[in-house]
Amino acid sequence: MRAAFRNIVTLVFLVAASAAQSHPHVWVTMQSEIVYAADGKAVGVRHAWKFDDMFSAFAVQGLEAKDKAKPTREELAPLAEVNVTSLKDFDYFTNATADGKKVTFKDPAKGDYWLDYGDAVLTLHFLLPFTEPVRAKELVLDIYDPQIFIDFALAKDKPIALANAPSGCNATATPPRQMTFQESKRLAEIGADQKNTEMAWGANFANKLKVVCP
Fold first, then answer.
1. Is the dihedral of CA 57, 120, 60, 45 positive or negative?
2. Is residue 151 within 8 Å of 27, Cβ to Cβ?
């Protein structure tokens, strides 16, 4: 069974088919915080992903809430569970290397993820822990959808932060390069109800987070 997260996204663009004749179909604005333990090792990344208003409006349809305009975190908990569980199928769209070596993640623990709703948009918060704590001079995270079904963009305000990082560590966030006209044209030719299988080069358009420590 394909991830419910992707299924919800699919329904979004089918409902708005007249406006969704090209990829991507969902837009996410993200802020990320690299979390460190007291011993100076990185233990994971805390993401905050703000979805576009169309996806947000569709996702909360039928939600049982006392105030439909402002559902609480508790009322959004089942949807948060669906999103985080489903993101596992896509490796949380997050790839990491420490000093050039691949780093793996564990699944977020219950209590370490939630949704909130404000200004008519949903924001998914979750702590994605490394399988083992990491000590590295250069820690790099690439966030992207390989099929460019979902467009990830860095927040204009504080796209990256460090929590409890050792002294002297510096963080930078670099957006992906712009698509060429030909690349955009090819992507636009993929039907709204089709997967981007021929142009699965989303890694070329990854948002790059880098932390350099002494």
1. positive
2. yes
| Domain coverage including residue 205 | 4-212
pLDDT of residue 208: 96
Q: For the whole prediction, is pTM greater than 0.70?
A: yes
**76 Cα distance to chain centroid:** 18
**Exposed, middle or buried: residue 3 (CB in 10 Å: 0-12, 13-18, 19+)?**
middle
Q: Which amino acid is at 150?
A: I
Residue entry with tokens 């998914």: 124
Look at residue 180 and tell me whether its pLDDT is greater than 80. Answer: no
- Report CA dihedral (135, 31, 25, 94) to the nearest 10 degrees: 10
Tens of pLDDT, residue by residue over 84-137, are 988 988 899 999 999 999 999 999 999 999 999 999 999 999 999 999 999 999
User: How many domains in the chain?
Assistant: 1
